[in-house]
Design brief:
2 domains; about 170 residues; six-stranded antiparallel beta sheet; 5 helices; alpha+beta; single chain
């Protein structure tokens, strides 16, 4: 069954799921009606898992760049004191940035892509959402060839970024 037939089966004639390139379409653990994975972190379709950096295959979930995630993330960066690559530009964030340029507070950490040769720095996730221990890695630019250690929907990403934004507002007070 191709994704469009699956959309048709569930009555979604606009095919919004398959045009977003959702990697879970067709997976037995994907509840399309609620846009949720029911596998509790163990995806039922091994074809959707890919090795990334030093993660185990079981812990890697691709983030589709064709969907809304990249736009959501970039808009959030721009509106919260970071540039399009994740470098801080808001001087109020300086106390929370280390010498490698990694921003970190109690809720999240953001590390722009590392262009150097230090393997330890190369293996650091580019974004960590601490409340749910979600790590996101990308290649060169935010959410380009991106992978997470847990399944991530656009809705979940937006909710996470809302909490991250609230944590930045607390820093500004």
């Amino acid at each position: 069954m191709n994704p469009c037939e699956l959309c048709e089966e569930y009555g979604d004639h606009d095919c919004k799921h398959c045009t977003l390139g959702n990697p879970c379409i067709g997976c037995v653990d994907y509840d399309m009606r609620n846009d949720a994975c029911t596998s509790e972190g163990a995806c039922g379709d091994p074809a959707n898992k890919r090795k990334w950096k030093n993660c185990d295959e079981e812990d890697v979930y691709p983030i589709d760049r064709c969907g809304q995630c990249e736009d959501i993330f970039l808009a959030w960066l721009q509106s919260h004191g970071f540039d399009d690559c994740g470098h801080w530009i808001d001087t109020r964030l300086i106390p929370y940035v280390n010498e490698e340029g990694r921003f970190e507070n109690a809720v999240f950490a953001l590390f722009p892509y590392y262009w150097g040769d230090d393997e330890a720095l190369q293996s650091i996730p580019n974004f960590v959402y601490k409340p749910d221990d979600i790590c996101i890695y990308w290649y060169k630019y935010p959410l380009r060839e991106a992978y997470a250690n847990k399944p991530l929907t656009e809705r979940k990403l937006a909710d996470m970024l809302d909490v991250c934004g609230e944590s930045l507002e607390q820093l500004a007070k």
